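Supplementary Methods. Inverse-folding protocol.

Structures were first reduced to a discrete structure-token string of length 570. This string, shown here, constituted the complete conditioning input.
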């Protein structure tokens, strides 16, 4: 490591609070990797939670590594070896290299980190002297198959109960000097939620669909069963390491819930993390107290924060301590005078709302459970209380979407703007509406997982129409994803093991996906643009998590009656 890199690591550590440093030689060693930049990884509560769990286990030591910022070319060329943040040890020196993966678009960074660490990319090419490569996180829980050839072990679902079991089996294998093959077999047989992909073979029909994913030997589970943690109050999930260089560095993050009771058909959170669970008031207050010893702002994290029965109560507690709070997107139908007053009291100036679609037909298809009146009433109430910045989330490329549905987004935003202006006339000036436009991507384990991605060209045209409608309006700012990256995300989200070859080609070609598509004899459109049959075996059907597939099929069929298009296999 050169002087410049050493100084950068030392500066990062000096600006952190809560770092754990154990002595090498006394524990088995784990390097926890986040396949993105430090500032993003350290704002991820799941990543922080895994760091805490591992370091609390007496048999394990945990350090961290992130994708380098600004030095990618130098690392890729091998001029600088990637090392851990805490002790600056090479990643290949660790017993375990564990990736926490939240987003499919971070998959290329996983290969980049391995390559810059001198670790063979594919599991079949690694020997006993290399770190055991494990992966977890929501993206891999949804569908690990595109990365099956790269990881030795997947730890799927919620980590709090699985990681200590993994540590016990791993430590026992090391004590008995068992080889890697025996260790992997023991992990698969002994721990629910563990998936060792090399122990399972995929068979295909001639047309390319999956026939089955089956264990190679007797005694292995036919399906990987993942069970939810029943009592989340038994585990503290808060920020562990506070870094001044992380996103949202001014907030101490506290988890208030998991899962969502609304079960919107496009969103995996409600279906994977079922049933919804809310932390108790006393546990949240205790976490708030710890956080306020470090920072003066509490970030309330969860998939259904506004559904917590004690939200107003613990927000008032924060206000009573003279502090502020940050809250993510709020359910539109949960916004009332009490909620808005408390949002204002805790210092929130910008409120994020998610209508998702402009037309009632598409909102019904998505099972949003909100009306245009709900949206306009929420906007009116927020503006009345001088919440003068709104952020609105919409999706384009939804199933059965027509040009009229895009017009409906434009019309709805104009109605919201008119509502805001009517409320602020002669009073405090209304500031801005930010439209965040994202392409709908069919996610595994949701009722819309069988839908194809909308054509990139059509989505680009529709985004352009929205942008054009507000191009001269200084109060409305439109931000949108690039449609081609939605195509890549959909491919990595819905792919099987063969997609791993496309990922490898893109890595070898320095991220040139168009060349990778041409070089690999796999048609990516098969995964992205194909309408899937509800009776076919999907890549992620090897894993059972959340609500059963038959419940998703039932919801999918309901969506067809609420504005969707027909599909095969009904």
């Amino acid at each position: 490591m050169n002087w410049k890199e050493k100084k950068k690591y030392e500066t990062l550590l000096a600006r952190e609070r809560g770092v754990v440093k154990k002595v090498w030689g006394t524990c088995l060693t784990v390097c926890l990797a986040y396949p993105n930049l430090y500032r993003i990884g350290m704002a991820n509560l799941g990543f922080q939670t895994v760091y805490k769990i591992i370091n609390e286990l007496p048999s394990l030591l945990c350090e961290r590594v992130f994708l380098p910022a600004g030095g990618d070319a130098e690392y890729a060329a091998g001029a600088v070896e990637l090392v851990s943040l805490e002790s600056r040890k090479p990643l290949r020196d660790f017993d375990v290299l564990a990736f926490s993966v939240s987003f499919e678009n971070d998959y290329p960074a996983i290969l980049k980190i391995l390559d810059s660490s001198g670790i063979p990319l594919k599991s079949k090419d690694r020997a006993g002297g290399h770190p055991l490569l494990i992966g977890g996180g929501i993206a891999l829980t949804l569908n690990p198959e595109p990365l099956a050839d790269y990881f030795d072990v997947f730890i799927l679902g919620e980590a709090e109960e699985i990681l200590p079991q993994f540590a016990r089996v791993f430590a026992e294998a090391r004590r008995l000097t068992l080889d890697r093959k025996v260790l992997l077999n023991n992990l698969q047989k002994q721990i629910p939620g563990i998936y060792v992909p090399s122990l399972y073979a995929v068979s295909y029909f001639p047309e390319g669909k999956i026939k089955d994913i089956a264990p190679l030997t007797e005694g292995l589970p036919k399906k990987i069963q993942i069970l939810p943690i029943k009592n989340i109050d038994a585990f503290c999930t808060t920020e562990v390491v506070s870094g001044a260089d992380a996103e949202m560095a001014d907030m101490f993050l506290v988890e208030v819930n998991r899962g969502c009771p609304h079960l919107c058909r496009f969103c995996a959170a409600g279906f994977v993390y079922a049933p919804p669970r809310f932390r108790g008031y006393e546990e949240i207050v205790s976490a708030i107290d710890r956080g306020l010893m470090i920072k003066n702002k509490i970030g309330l994290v969860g998939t259904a924060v506004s559904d917590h029965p004690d939200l107003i109560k613990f927000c008032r507690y924060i206000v009573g301590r003279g502090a502020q709070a940050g809250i993510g997107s709020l359910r539109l139908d949960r916004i009332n005078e009490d909620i808005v007053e408390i949002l204002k009291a805790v210092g929130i100036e910008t409120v994020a709302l998610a209508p998702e679609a402009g037309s009632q037909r598409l909102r019904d298809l998505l099972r949003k459970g909100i009306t245009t009146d709900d949206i306009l009433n929420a906007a009116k109430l927020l503006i009345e209380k001088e919440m003068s910045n709104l952020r609105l989330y919409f999706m384009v490329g939804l199933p059965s979407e027509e040009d009229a549905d895009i017009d409906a987004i434009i019309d709805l935003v104009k109605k919201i703007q008119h509502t805001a202006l009517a409320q602020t006339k002669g009073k405090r000036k209304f500031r801005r509406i930010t439209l965040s436009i994202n392409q709908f991507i069919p996610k595994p384990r949701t009722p819309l997982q069988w839908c194809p991605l909308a054509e990139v060209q059509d989505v680009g045209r529709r985004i352009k129409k929205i942008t054009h409608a507000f191009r001269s309006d200084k109060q409305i700012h439109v931000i949108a994803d690039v449609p081609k990256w939605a195509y890549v995300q959909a491919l990595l989200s819905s792919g099987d093991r063969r997609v791993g070859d496309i990922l490898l080609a893109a890595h070898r070609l320095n991220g040139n996906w168009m060349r990778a598509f041409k070089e690999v004899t796999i048609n990516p459109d098969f995964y992205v643009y194909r309408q899937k049959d509800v009776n076919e075996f999907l890549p992620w059907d090897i894993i059972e998590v959340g609500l059963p597939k038959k419940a998703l099929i039932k919801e999918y069929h309901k969506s067809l009656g609420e504005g969707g298009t027909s599909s095969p296999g009904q």
